[in-house]
Amino acid sequence: MPIPIRFRKALPGIALAAFALGAAAAGAQETSAQAQAQSTNQTVPDKAADAWITTKVKSEFATTKGIHATDINVDTTDGVVTLSGGVASSSEKAAAVKVARAVKGVKSVDATGLTVKAAAGTP
User: Exposed site from 57, 67, 68, 99, fewest CB < 10 Å?
Assistant: First the structure.
């Protein structure tokens, strides 16, 4: 069934109106997200930078020989990297701290939560 001419002429306007409504809704969500981010005293760009740092530290761990990346948890807040979990030796812990410090944007590294596991068979 063909669409009447008067409706065909109105279709672009309807599509534009639907697009505008979608953009307005997205803008409202963005404003809400920004307000929520500011309420945690950290801006959206800061959170993005922290997420980037966390990802970069994890990827450096994954590609560094002698560091078991799956055993180390990484969290970043305001450029401060917090490492937690367990490592096999104190040298692995030192290497993890060194690698994390070398990542661009890292202000400091807190490894107090990174513990050296007892070797298997050790009482």
Answer: 68
